[in-house]
Amino acid sequence: MRRYPARPVPRSIGILAATAVITLAAAAVTTADPLSIQDRLQTGLNEAVSGADVPGAQLVLTDDSGILQINSGVGDLGTGAAFPDNAQVRIASNTKSFVAAVMLQLVGEGRVELDAPVERYLPGLVQGPGGDGNVITIRNLLQHTSGIPDYILDLDLESVAALQQSRSSDDLIRVALAKTAEFAPGDRSEYSNTNYLIAGKVIERVTGLPVGVEVTRRILLPLGLRDTYWPLYPLESVIRGPHARAYHEFDGALTDVTDIDPGWGLPDGAMVSTGADMNRFYMALLAGRVLGAAELTQMERTVPSGDLRRSEDFGLGLFHWTTSCGIEAWGHGGTMHGTFVYGGATAGRSVTVSMNELPDIIATKVRNIDLDEVVDAALCAPR
């Protein structure tokens, strides 16, 4: 699948012990104990790469001490090169956090009401067996409590040709609404990419501008996220800055899909960013520098996960969990062909891990590998 929740491995699964060689990127980091956290994260990242059977990964940790970058494996199977410094990557469903933040800014401006029906903003669009816009609210969309089916489950994306075939939001929304709703709005939560296609259309109807433009002018420019952008699909498909190669297995053959954009410019997963920019965004968001206090409070109001694929509580464009050391962490995560980007954040520290192939989930479980362990260590370990 192109995009699905980014934590398919249960948090309760332990991580195997292993020995690793330190390969630390040339970022200046000042710590009282300069090796302990680096050793631990390098070991954890190496284990994650090996256990998930992916070519390589880059971990970026940001806090008051600076930026720590760690690489593991390779970023290019042809040359054996590592991930380049500050590598750009397609962040897939992490895009949803940016889109939700824009929607909540509109709430703060009095232009959108969270508990208003979608029908108010998009008359006649959300109608069918899959959902009723007169009942489904903006909050339901952002929190995945709408019951609208996920269009992604009905698409065949297991070929290069399929990834290159453009789809519009309208077409994909129709695909989802033609199915039977998963549950009544508000009854529970279940992740659906369709929710954010509709949310993006609400933003565009209210502002009169493309959702990518709104994300850029409201979030990327004010925060100085210079290495983050919304691709000009279909005019560009090649990632603009330094990046690793991205791979996906089709019918047993590993294929380079780096220069294919399976995000299609859509608001459920279009964006490109770096680990450092992702960290800056989530830290700024949680510190109250993106939203007003009332809107951030709404974003952090959670419901229990009703989705077997995720254990975290569902907020509005954010997911919440508690780390092993008792820290309240937030994040999202994203996956698409050739990309697996996940992490966690607080207002004072954030970590992002980028892999250049989707993990082999079955093999990961068999090997007793918990991909979240390295994120947990990054958020908990002292620097």
Percent helix range: 25-40%
In whole angstroms, the N-to-C terminal distance is: 37 Å
Biggest beta-sheet profile: 5 strands, antiparallel
Shape: globular
Question: Runs with pLDDT <50, length 5+?
Answer: 1-32
Q: Strand-and-helix sequence, N→C? A: HEEEHHHHHHEEEHHEEEEEEHH
Structure description:
The chain is of the alpha+beta class and 383 residues long. The protein is 29% helix and 15% strand. The strands form 4 sheets. A 5-stranded antiparallel β-sheet has the order 2-1-12-11-10, with helices on both faces. A 3-stranded antiparallel β-sheet has the order 7-8-9, with no helix packed on it. Strand 1 and strand 2 form a beta hairpin. Helix 1 runs antiparallel to helix 11, helix 2 packs across helix 6 and helix 5 packs across helix 6. The radius of gyration is 20 Å and the shape is globular. The two termini are 37 Å apart.
